[in-house]
Design brief:
heterodimer, A: alpha+beta, 7 strands, 22% helix, B: alpha/beta, 11-stranded mixed β-sheet, 6-stranded antiparallel β-barrel
């Protein structure tokens, strides 16, 4: 099954947006910046995302074509929820002890939802890489059933590279706001990813400062520091 | 916002636009300003706005007293000194250009009232939204010192009243002390009216090494300029003013009429006090613990001697007189004789006849320096006491026009005097233990009427008699960190507001706060360079040690034997021998 997957773990450094692992589709939104994605399971896709491919803090994107131009709308998983319609239901059961094979299963109805906060947009070039990343709020809405793909590290890196070639995380205040109670954690998870993508010492120091600031601010907000 | 448009102001449009009034401040004369530019406005800067007072637009001057950041990058961006906060800000997409906003606190000084010739407080704060400009340099030059600029002075050729048009250096009798510290070097020159501090006295207060003697030198130079030609008398206990003689022959000091300042030095050899000039109190102060009876005897004898026509009597004549009054065998007179001979007769300072004629001592255009560095403190005080008393009497006689009286045979000085006291706390100590204190108190409180000004220079304001210090109408205060001395300034110097006191610890040598009668408002200045050399530098110890050592190395002396390594003869042995 994994052989047939379009995108493998080994090429997560890829910097192209085509051929990425689809991890789910949009089912609803809470606001312009905050979407709910239903994660694919084995019944939906041959190559369903593994737990580490749609985890907390995973950068994702939606590939859109708008007025003939291709864009990616970048986002990050900031929350997950499990839904089991069978939960709390004690019956009825058609199955007898000696007929286990007839037990109607609701397995396919158990599902995993992920909250995705939008980070910004970027243009897709002809060779499938991205350029002109913008950390402004995207103007377009995504649609229900838009496919959300896992963002490879190369694209994540390109998205966080500013015009001057430096590190850029300009969406941070909006993310902290949209992600609510887990805002600090998702930011820190992103910072952790960026540490690997931007190993230069200067960038690491900037990330240190940002990380400390976020940690300190959340600790203050939560009342464990002042 | 309907603030008066700058074009309606007479002079306000000249300065650079620096900020906008945000609203009233804490005090009744304070207001807040918001300014985006971090460099333009410093604390202590003079800014101006226009208000309408009785139908006329007036430029009100205010002083910036405090500045704090109203908006800027958060401190957390500065967590790592290796990372510039701007880098963090750029990474996070925070704008870094033109985001700093500063909130300044300013205190209204007032608008210059050409009729009152001083500042007048409009009692009206600027409205929020009023635009503020830096006060024009030329205007500050005219209004900060107490120059008495009136409407005629400020009228331009077109008939408008413009304070910036006053040509300050054209006025006579001004001392160019330096320039405003907040502005560029020489942009706003401070010219202090000499008449003002020569009448109401001057105090130069600063800790050692901050340039008080230098500043005094600047003032003395200014007072010897051809447009002033003062009569200066300097009491110099350290011999610091020996370089002033350079004024002679210096082009700056030469007048069109051939005037050259005279600089006369008096050393202890030609500084003598005639015994008959002393008062009985002066004599008491130099005697060792005279008993009450002795004091009574001396008082009687002294009074009888002063009644005599002769003024050339000495201790011998005094003793004869006391013996005549109290009998040959009076024990107190006998004890007095021993004391008088020890303290008065054997002291070279006191003579029976010679007396420096006051005309030799002081004259217009002459700076007389009394070099007293070899004298004891008591003798210095004694010289000051006697000279001041004589000069004061001579001025008193001149003002009361005693010169016309044929009966009058005293001395007369028919021009005002200004006398400077280096180490002023020696002559007017707070402890009261100086014979000169009495006459100094008299001159500081009465001298104004008789044209006799004093200048007190001291590094220990707390050790100066508070009556004397509080009478000094103009103050030049430099760096002072000692809290006792700061308190002394606060308590005795009326014009020293909190603003002034707050500046004192932060001043560097050569920077001074000038306040008091000679100023319309206190200002912070950089004292100008002296035309003559400064004579009071510290001795370069390491260099002198080195040369002294080299000298000794060249000429072998027995001190070489005292080498500790030799073990033959050393300090240790001597110490043991002494036991």
């Amino acid at each position: 099954m994994s052989n047939a997957s379009p995108s493998d773990r080994s090429d997560s450094q890829a910097d192209r947006v085509d051929d990425c692992l689809a991890i789910g589709s949009i089912v609803s939104s809470n606001s312009h910046m905050d979407y709910t994605v239903e994660i694919y399971n084995e019944t939906d896709r041959e190559r369903a995302p593994g737990p580490d491919e749609c985890g907390f803090g995973q950068p994702v994107f939606v590939h859109k074509t708008i007025q003939g131009f291709e864009y990616v709308v970048m986002g990050v998983i900031y929350d997950t929820r499990l839904v089991d319609p069978d939960q709390g239901r004690s019956g009825p059961r058609l199955a007898q002890r000696d007929q286990p094979q007839f037990t109607p299963g609701y397995v396919e109805e158990r599902t995993k939802f992920a909250g995705v906060a939008l980070l910004g947009t970027a243009e897709v070039t002809e060779d499938g890489t991205i350029e002109n990343p913008s950390h402004q709020m995207p103007r377009w809405t995504l649609d229900v059933e838009d496919i959300v793909e896992r963002c490879p590290d190369g694209v994540t890196r390109a998205f966080h590279t500013g015009d001057d070639g430096g590190l850029q995380i300009a969406y941070i205040e909006r993310l902290l706001d949209v992600a609510g109670p887990l805002g600090a954690e998702v930011t820190l998870a992103l910072v952790e990813r960026l540490r690997e993508s931007f190993p230069a010492e200067g960038n690491q120091r900037v990330l240190n400062v940002i990380e400390k600031d976020v940690r300190w601010q959340s600790s203050v907000d939560r009342g464990v520091m002042r | 916002m309907s603030s008066p448009s700058p074009s309606s102001a007479t002079t306000g449009s000249g300065g650079k636009l620096v900020g906008t009034v945000a609203g009233p401040g804490d005090g009744p004369n304070e207001f807040f300003i918001v300014t985006p530019d971090e460099q333009a406005v410093k604390t202590g800067e003079f800014i101006t706005y226009s208000v309408s007072v009785e139908g006329e637009s007036q430029d009100v001057i205010a002083r910036v007293t405090n500045r704090e950041q109203a908006r800027g990058l958060p401190e957390t961006f500065m967590a790592d000194p290796n990372v510039a906060p701007e880098t963090v800000a750029t990474t996070l997409g925070v704008p870094t250009e033109d985001i700093d906003l500063y909130r300044l606190e300013a205190t209204v000084i007032g608008f210059y009232d050409t009729q009152m010739q001083t500042f007048s407080n409009p009692r009206q704060l600027p409205r929020p939204g009023t635009r503020l400009r830096t006060a024009p340099d030329a205007m500050l030059e005219a209004v900060l010192p107490n120059l008495g600029v009136d409407e005629t002075d400020a009228r331009t050729s077109s008939g408008e009243v413009d304070l910036s048009s006053v040509d300050v250096p054209e006025h006579d009798g001004l001392a160019h002390m330096g320039w405003l510290l907040n502005r560029e070097t020489g942009a706003v020159d401070l010219h202090v009216p000499i008449d003002e501090f020569a009448a109401t006295h001057l105090a130069i207060l600063a800790s050692t090494g901050s340039g008080k003697s230098y500043t005094a030198g600047v003032l003395m130079e200014e007072m010897m300029m051809p447009d002033v030609r003062a009569s200066l008398l300097v009491f110099d206990p350290h011999g610091e003013y020996d370089t002033l003689a350079e004024m002679r022959g210096e082009e700056t000091f030469a007048g069109d009429d051939g005037y050259q300042p005279e600089v006369e030095y008096f050393d202890p050899d030609n500084l003598r006090i005639r015994i008959s000039e002393l008062s009985v109190g002066d004599v008491m102060s130099v005697l060792d613990n005279p008993s009450d009876r002795m004091q009574e005897r001396l008082d009687g004898g002294w009074r009888a001697m002063q009644q005599r026509d002769s003024r050339t009597w000495g201790v011998d004549e005094l003793m004869d007189e006391m013996r005549r009054q109290y009998g040959e065998d009076d024990a107190s007179v006998g004890a007095l004789e021993w004391r008088l001979r020890r303290s008065v007769q054997r002291n070279d300072l006191f003579t029976t006849d010679a007396n420096v004629p006051l005309d030799d001592l002081v004259a217009p255009g002459r700076c007389t320096v009394l070099q007293m560095d070899t004298l004891s403190r008591r003798d210095q005080q004694m010289i000051a006491t006697v000279l001041l008393r004589r000069l004061y009497q001579a001025r008193l006689a001149a003002v009361r026009e005693r010169g016309d009286d044929p009966e009058f045979d005293g001395e007369i000085i028919d021009f005002p005097l200004f006398s400077l006291f280096e180490e002023g706390h020696r002559f007017a100590p707070a402890t009261g233990e100086a014979p000169s204190l009495g006459i100094m108190r008299t001159i500081t409180s009465e001298g104004r009427k008789f044209g006799f000004g004093l200048g007190i220079i001291s590094q220990r304001p707390s050790k100066i008699d508070q009556d004397v210090l509080s009478q000094c109408g103009t103050q030049v205060t430099m760096k002072i960190q000692n809290p006792t001395d700061q308190d002394a300034i606060k308590n005795s110097v009326e014009a020293a507001g909190e603003d002034v006191l707050r500046e004192l610890p932060g001043l560097t040598p050569g920077q001074a706060v000038v306040s008091g009668d000679a100023m319309n408002t206190p200002v912070l200045i950089q004292v100008r360079k002296r035309h003559t050399q400064h004579g009071a530098d510290s001795i370069p110890a390491t260099q002198e040690w080195r040369t002294a050592h080299e000298r000794r190395q060249e000429q072998p002396t027995r001190s070489e034997n005292a080498d500790l390594g030799g073990g033959e003869s050393s300090g240790e042995v001597d110490l043991l021998g002494d036991e």
